[in-house]
Design brief:
Elements lengths: L1 H22 L2 E3 L5 E3 L10 E4 L7 E4 L8 E9 L2 E10 L5 E4 L2 E4 L10 E5 L4 E5 L9 E11 L4 E11 L6 E2 L5 E4 L12 E2 L7 E5 L9 E10 L5 E11 L8 E7 L6 H10 L4 E6 L6 H9 L3 E6 L4 H4 L3 H19 L5 E2 L17 H11 L3 E2 L4 E2 L10 H8 L6 E7 L5 H16 L3 E2 L16
Parallel strand pairs: 2-6, 8-12, 14-18, 19-20, 19-25, 19-26, 20-21, 22-23, 24-25
Antiparallel strand pairs: 1-3, 4-5, 5-6, 7-9, 10-11, 11-12, 13-15, 16-17, 17-18
Helix pairs in contact: 7-8
Length: 456
């Protein structure tokens, strides 16, 4: 009797479980998961079992943005059975803050950012002083840097601020003569190397009135460098204007930025038809067209470096970020052509102002640094205006591109899938210059240089 009763109870339990799992076949690891911002969450990995079924037949509705804290709904559905859960994404981790001590003069504006080497967090972080520095105080003082994210997580680090009375003038580091090619449009300020013990950006005043860039010879530039503590150095720097075999020749350097693209092959066909050479400042955004880079190189065109990513926010966030991007595109070019390139064009040109949004003063640094690293950068003195939009007419591009104002012309075009009117205008532009006796050369490091005045 007892055995029968026991078996009946067991059978009833199995029946009840069977009924329960029939109506609730979806078993989950967590009913309402809590996950940290920035971590991976796979809703299928939260499934423990599908009773009497296969997980392949499970459907999930809803999305979880693991980069944004909040509560997200997910619905698991197996046949006509559904289970809805809430997934909570939270930010509970404090920012990771690396700091450095700062030694500076009495003039620099002191901000918390000066002390930060690196900061990492999954959300926006604000920096502040826990104790306000005595800005005019000479000597050393201890400060606390507070990093707080938008969810209230915070980190505090101790630093030392040392303020000195600066009485040391900047030092002009140019020991050898600056070499320029006859007829080049040079920004001499970009070639002056000046260093100060406390001011990273001394102000420069140049007197170039004694330099005749059209006549080979040795000249002097008078340089005055002033740091923010008003220490001044005056010095003459030699300039050697070297004879340019291309000077007094009428030359057009056709340059194409942003490629390769589906239009690159059309441009190459036109250049081949008219027997002219050009320069392609390439990017890494369209690897499926990289064979066109190799074809351009093998046809005798120059391959220059524009940018790998063309992401202004990243490229111009710091000088290190710029050169990381430049090294990446140069490695790509070397893998295609077998050799590195030493000619570059800055995204937006050296005169771009958008870089100031991400790193004030970076262009003034970069124009010097690229020269020091063995590159020559090229801006332009004639623009096709095709950067103004994707609907610029063929006629407008021809009008903007055709001029006999200069004997040596660096002409800017853009190479992308949307620049069909640029391709259509190219034959007429080539004919215009050929009819006026211009030759077409690819750029090299020794070519006629056009440099804009930097604005950042």
């Amino acid at each position: 009797m007892k055995k029968l009763l026991y078996l009946s109870v067991v059978a009833l339990i199995y029946i009840l479980f069977g009924i329960f799992y029939y109506w609730n076949p979806i078993l989950l690891v967590q009913q309402d998961p809590i996950i940290e911002i920035g971590t991976q969450f796979d809703p299928y990995e939260n499934v423990l079992n599908i009773v009497y079924g296969d997980i392949k037949d499970l459907k999930i509705k809803g999305k979880v943005d693991t980069n944004t804290p909040g509560v997200y709904s997910l619905t698991y559905q197996y046949k006509d059975r559904k289970k809805t859960i809430k997934v909570k994404v939270i930010d509970s981790k404090a920012p990771i803050l690396e700091v450095k001590n700062v030694k500076t003069d009495l003039q620099e504006h002191i901000t918390p950012e000066l002390f930060v080497k690196n900061i990492k967090d999954s959300s926006k972080v604000t920096l502040s002083f826990e104790n306000v520095p005595e800005l005019k105080k000479k000597g050393k003082q201890k400060l606390n840097i507070l990093a707080k994210d938008i969810y209230g997580n915070s980190t505090t680090k101790k630093v030392i601020l040392e303020r000195l009375e600066d009485k040391t003038p900047p030092e002009i580091k140019n020991k050898k003569a600056i070499q320029v090619l006859q007829g080049s449009m040079e920004d001499f300020a970009s070639k002056i190397r000046v260093k100060d013990d406390l001011d990273p950006n001394p102000q420069l005043e140049l007197d170039t009135s004694q330099v005749d860039t059209f006549s080979p010879g040795i000249y002097s530039i008078h340089v005055k460098a002033t740091d923010r503590s008003n220490n001044i150095v005056d010095q003459d720097v030699k300039v050697e204007v070297k004879e340019n075999p291309e000077y007094n020749k009428k030359i057009v350097y056709l340059t194409f930025d942003d490629g390769p693209s589906e239009n690159t092959i059309k441009v190459l066909d036109i250049l081949k038809e008219y027997d002219v050479k050009a320069t392609f400042f390439v990017t890494g955004h369209a690897p499926s067209y990289n064979d066109f880079i190799k074809e351009a190189f093998e046809q005798g065109h120059s391959i220059g470096l524009h940018t790998y990513s063309h992401d202004y926010k990243n490229i111009y966030s710091s000088t290190n970020a710029y050169f990381n991007d430049l090294d990446q595109i140069n490695s790509m070019v070397e893998s295609i052509t077998g050799q590195k390139s030493d000619i570059i064009r800055f995204p937006g040109g050296s005169s771009n102002s958008i870089s100031a949004k991400y790193s004030p003063g970076i262009m003034s640094e970069l124009v010097k640094m690229v020269n020091e690293r063995g590159y020559q950068y090229f801006d332009w003195n004639v623009s096709s205006s095709d950067a103004a939009g994707n609907d610029i007419s063929k006629e407008q591009i021809i009008q903007s591109s055709c001029t006999d104002k200069f004997d040596q012309i660096n002409l800017l075009f853009h190479d992308s899938a949307t620049k069909n009117s640029t391709v259509e205008a190219l034959p007429d532009i080539i004919k215009f210059y050929k009819d006026r006796g211009y030759k077409f050369y690819p750029l090299t490091k020794k070519s006629y240089v056009v440099h804009h005045q930097t604005t950042n």
